[in-house]
Each structure stands twice: as structure tokens, then as C-alpha cells.
Write a structure and sequence with these properties.
This protein is α+β, with helices and mostly antiparallel strands and 397 residues long. The protein is built from 15 helices and 16 strands. Helix 5 packs across helix 7 and helix 10 packs across helix 11.
């Protein structure tokens, strides 16, 4: 909770530098296109401080270049000072993706003739070099204008595939988003030269960096959890690092499980035992948590530490959903007490709640009802809505 920024006062002053520091503390902020209330990255940050302004995030990313967009376990906004470490990811991605795309698309059509995928990438890179910030639709063949949009990379038009390849492997960067569409440009025009020139090519050093930084943000973790944090190293590499560093710098501890499962042996810094006596109390406010919040991203860890079983049901047929299309966990102090299904109905200027499910043993007291109403009103104001409404019978059992 402390490492995830959820014990700090949610209404304290919050300037742009505070936002930058918070994102550094988290390591990254996942982004996602779904906007039932607001997009994930905005909700993640708002949950930690309700004086957060989305314009601050835009400035850090697009004007100051203190953040860059790339992959961790998914698309994320990452402190630019970490960019040198992503060179290792670029190398791994190039080997993997080049083989995959060469296998599936040895030839592609361009200008009415077949060319190699390598030639297509050179054409795309040249276009971006000459024309500046480029969107996929800028390169889309004219004869594809009426075709249904596809999502899988194997169904993208070749120039879109080339843009993604060049981004994943470091030649291009995302300079901004237009709506939610990526706008690509040369990395030399997006990433500050002082950062690009800091070469980090030693893979063993990269594994050490990834494990150390993940552990500092998790507090304690199994080796697999360290590997999954950035999505950049494998479980075997993380396990070997842990075993090699047990001693003065790393200890093994046993952590009890809230769900009643067997306590788990994990790794931590030796100072963790002293730090436990100095933890701040989390706020008494209720907080709505994004489905992509780093607190709940690792579902197995979430179940073990919070006894909270959570899944996103957007891909579950409506008739088979247990809760709803996109429900938000609710945090009270250090406990996840339920989940809420709500949607911004912008045409009606209201945030509308269709369902609230509380965890076993949690009562919907007058005090909790008041705190929930206050939090929903804060959420509504944050997304520019004037009212909060509820379905009849919204409280589910």
C-alpha cells in the first residue's frame, strides 16, 4: 500500500513535480483505451491524489519528455530516465518479432508490387523521417478504406505492422496520442539525446536493475512476481538473481495469506522488518480503483494478500458475467471491500451506478454510504459530470 502510493493523503497539494515523483514511485502507469468512466491511467493517478490534473500528465509526456510510452507487461507510461534499460527490451523484441513477421509476411504489397517486409520498414522509416509525426491512417493504402478494422497484428495493413515493429524495437517512439491513436516519430526527435546516449547493453546488469527496481516497488515478492513486474525478464532470470543475492542484501521471509492459503516464502530487503513499525495509516476515504491499477494487476498476489478475487469481464458474454462489463474495486483503508459497476453517461451529464457488490462480512452502513457518495461525487467532478445517479436495487447481494 505504501509502496503503491495509496497511504498518502489523497487531497494534499499536487503539482506537476509531485506527479512525476509519483509515477517514478510506481515505476509505470498502464494505459488502456476503455473509457466507461475515464481511461485507466487517469483513474490510477486520481485514486492516489484527487488534485491530479490530466493536463499535468500530458505536459510531462509531450512537452517535458519526462515520460515515454512503451511496453512493460502492457502499454504504459514510463519515466524517461528508465529508457536506457529498454534497449535490452528492444533487442529481444527485434529477434522475436522479426522472425514472426518474416514467417507470416515474407512479402507485402506496396505501390502495386510485392516487396520484402524489410523494404517496407525502410519505406515507413523514410516517410516518418521526411514527414514528421505519423499515424497509421496516414500510411493506410487507399484501397483499404472501406474494409472493416482489424485488431490482430497479422490483420494490420503492412505499414501499420512496420510502424509497430519500429516502435517496439526502438527506432520510433510515440510522440503523443491523437484521441487514443498513436502518433509515431523518430526516437531521435522524441527521446532526449542525453538519455538515448546512455547505453545499457549488459544483460546481467539489466536483470539486476529490473529485479532491484521491482522489489523496491513491491516491498516483498516471489521471484516470479519480480519477473512479471516489468514484463522484461523471465522467471528463471529472476530466480537466479534472487538466489545469488540472498545474504546481506536480500532475505527470505514468510508472508501470511489473507485467503487462508499456505504462507508464502518471498524475498525482501533486510530493513523491511524495521519499516513495518513505521508505516503510515491509510486514509479513511473510499477509493475507486482502476481494473488496471498496479495494486491489483497481479491477480494471484491480490487474492493471496487481500483475499479479493477479481477479473475483468469485458470478454465474458453478458449472460455469463458475475458482476458487470467493467467493474471497479473499492478500497477502504487497507482492505478491498467490494466492487462497483458504473458508467459516465455524458449525454445526460451524470455518473450512473448500476451495481454495488460488497465483500462477505462488509455492511453497507450509513457511514460507508456517506463515504461512497462523497467518492462518487469526486469521481463525477473529475470527469466533468454534474450528477450521480443509481439504478433501483443497485446494492447487490
Amino acid at each position: 500500500m505504501v509502496r503503491q502510493g495509496l497511504c498518502a493523503a489523497p487531497s494534499s497539494p499536487f503539482a506537476k513535480d509531485d506527479l512525476r515523483q509519483l509515477i517514478h514511485q510506481l515505476g509505470f502507469v498502464q494505459i488502456d483505451s476503455i473509457r466507461t468512466v475515464e481511461r485507466a491511467h487517469h483513474m490510477i493517478l486520481f485514486a492516489r491524489n484527487q488534485n491530479y490534473k490530466p493536463e499535468q500528465l500530458r505536459q510531462l509526456l509531450e512537452d517535458d519528455r519526462h515520460l515515454f510510452e512503451h511496453w512493460t507487461h502492457d502499454a504504459s507510461l514510463i519515466p524517461t530516465e528508465f529508457y536506457p534499460h529498454w534497449q535490452q527490451r528492444f533487442v529481444r523484441a527485434e529477434d522475436r518479432l522479426r522472425e514472426r513477421w518474416r514467417k507470416h509476411r515474407p512479402k507485402v504489397k506496396s505501390g502495386g508490387k510485392q516487396i520484402s517486409f524489410e523494404d517496407m520498414m525502410e519505406q515507413v522509416k523514410h516517410h516518418v523521417h521526411e514527414n514528421g509525426p505519423t499515424m497509421s491512417r496516414d500510411l493506410k493504402p487507399k484501397d483499404e478504406g472501406r474494409k472493416k478494422a482489424k485488431n490482430g497484428w497479422w490483420e494490420w495493413h503492412p505499414s501499420k505492422t512496420a510502424l509497430e515493429f519500429l516502435w517496439r524495437t526502438g527506432d520510433l517512439s510515440i510522440t503523443r496520442r491523437d484521441g487514443f491513436q498513436k502518433v509515431y516519430d523518430l526516437s531521435t526527435r522524441v527521446i532526449p539525446e542525453t538519455v538515448r546516449s546512455d547505453s545499457q547493453n549488459d544483460h546481467a546488469a539489466f536483470v539486476t536493475w529490473a529485479c532491484n527496481e521491482a522489489l523496491d516497488r513491491l516491498g516483498f515478492a516471489a521471484s516470479g512476481e519480480l519477473a512479471a513486474y516489468w514484463g522484461s525478464i523471465n522467471a528463471g532470470e529472476a530466480k537466479a538473481w534472487c538466489l545469488a543475492n540472498v545474504g546481506p542484501d536480500l532475505i527470505e521471509i514468510s508472508v501470511g495469506s489473507a485467503d487462508g492459503s499456505t504462507p508464502k516464502t518471498v524475498y525482501a530487503r533486510p530493513a523491511i522488518m524495521d519499516a513495518l513499525h513505521d508505516l503510515p495509516d491509510p486514509s479513511d476515504r473510499l477509493r475507486v480503483i482502476s481494473p488496471f491499477d498496479p495494486l491489483i494487476r497481479d491477480r494471484k498476489r491480490l487474492q493471496r494478500l487481500f483475499d479479493f478475487d477479481y477479473r475483468i469481464e469485458i470478454f465474458v458474454p453478458e449472460a455469463k458475467r458475475k458482476y458487470g462489463y467493467y467493474v471497479f474495486p473499492i478500497l477502504e483503508k487497507d482492505r478491498l471491500i467490494g466492487r462497483i459497476d458504473m458508467k459516465a453517461q455524458r449525454q445526460d451529464d451524470r455518473l450512473h451506478v448500476t451495481g454495488l457488490w460488497l465483500e462477505p462480512g462488509i455492511k453497507f452502513t450509513k457511514g460507508r454510504e456517506k463515504k461512497l457518495t462523497s467518492e462518487l461525487n469526486r469521481q463525477a467532478r473529475f470527469v466533468g459530470l454534474c450528477d450521480v445517479t443509481f439504478n433501483k436495487g443497485f446494492l447487490k447481494t
